[in-house]
Specification:
single chain, about 160 residues, alpha+beta, two-stranded antiparallel ribbon, globular
Length: about 160
């Protein structure tokens, strides 16, 4: 018993909920794939910070609804999207914005998706550069509509270490 007194936990493993199928690694690959699409038009060699986290859609929607930094048209478009119980959220920021706990891009992925190969199956929606991005499921193409959007407050509901 005395051996554990000065022990320090450095890592631990938490099993996924049985409904979750998309791993963090796969979610990040899908996020990076979306970032490379022509619809986003991100400048080559841009210095951006990417943050991925897993959360419940209820917690995310609650944060989104209460966040005054997101303009109403963009917020409403994202809140209207159907989301599963668990989602991966990708946030995009710059060095200057992250210091202020602000982001410039927000992307939502289905954590319950069984298809690990294609980003078109798990991408739900996103906000970036005055655009609301979404997947047009019949055509499996990334589409966008113009919305007012600049920066937003980073999600910190279940990320106390941030």
């Amino acid at each position: 018993m005395i051996l554990w007194l000065y022990s320090k936990i450095t890592h631990f493993i938490v099993p996924f909920h049985p409904e979750m199928h998309l791993s963090a690694k796969e979610a990040k690959i899908k996020f990076k794939t979306i970032l490379c699409t022509p619809e986003l038009n991100i400048a080559l060699h841009s210095s951006l910070f990417i943050r991925m986290f897993l959360t419940s859609s209820d917690s995310f929607r609650d944060h989104l609804a209460k966040d005054p930094s997101i303009p109403k048209p963009s917020k409403d478009a994202l809140l209207k999207k159907v989301m599963p119980s668990f989602i991966w959220v990708g946030e995009l920021s710059t060095k200057e914005l992250i210091k202020q706990r602000k982001g410039m891009g927000l992307f939502v992925f289905d954590a319950t998706d069984l298809d690990a190969l294609s980003y078109t199956h798990s991408f739900i929606a996103g906000l970036f550069q005055d655009r609301f991005l979404y997947m047009d499921y019949p055509t499996r193409q990334l589409k966008y509509s113009d919305k007012s959007f600049t920066t937003f407050n980073l999600f910190t509901n279940n990320l106390n270490g941030f």
